Please model this.
Amino acid sequence: MDNLSPANCFGVVEPVIVIRNNGQNALSQTTIKYSVNNGDPMIYPFTGNLGLFDKATIDLPAYNFGVEENNILKIWSESPNGVADEYPKNDTITVVIPQGYRGVPNIVVQVKTDKAPAEFTWEIRDEAGNVVEEGGPYPNQNTIYKDTVEIPINTCYTFHAIDAGGNGLCCDNGIGFVKLYDATGANFFVANKFGSEASTQFWVDSYIGVESGAVLHDKISVYPNPASEMLFISLSLKKDADVEMSITDLSGKKVYETGFGRLSTGDHDLTLETSGLTNGMYMVRISTGREVVVRRIMISNK
Model:
């Protein structure tokens, strides 16, 4: 399945699916149905001529729904060639799409370029599809850029990360990334392996207040979750610190340990390749000597 945002606040989906004929007889017709949150299904009649193991890509029309905290998209097929399917277990796909993150203004777009910075750009579009903010291409390799965007509150937006080279920000040209976070420092989108484009939807909420003054604690974020191939650690240190990380499986066995050395006061973005870890659930422990954060992380390498 393709063309789905990892989060949704518009209340519209336009899935792209691939069907395959696993039967000996050619598939000339079938009925595709789909719905969100058990709403009334839309019906798409497929006609064609698919031989054994042949595939077809289908762009399904838009489906509108009321956004909930978690939205369940269900797509299924019925009546291949006008008869009941002899093996219906692989006829249904279900995907959970969470509600778009409600960010506190202002939103920050942070980009770490790879070795092809001129290939990368980004856009923020409003509900009408108009570009309201954009960035890139960038001049320098392996450089961190931060753009603070001021956009109207109480509305939904789509963020698009675009790579003209078709290989994202990892790994043909080194390792970079793009991420979004709000005024609280909360990361709500990160991507680097995405081919030509990655996107998400988010809501800019009314300003709920952040006290001014000195930072009282180190801020530590570990993302994404689940993680595939790469894990990111964002630190905002109130003082210089010796930063260490360990990873244990759910039995308590330590499977990875490293030290990042002494890091200076301020913001740091660290990365860890997860390809050496078996898929499953782990506990990640980050220590700065003053603060300790433990996060449960799912590793889902492809």
About this structure: Residues 207-216 have pLDDT under 50 and may be disordered. The first strand starts at residue 12 and ends at 13. The domain at 102-204 is CATH 2.60.60 (Lipoxygenase-1).
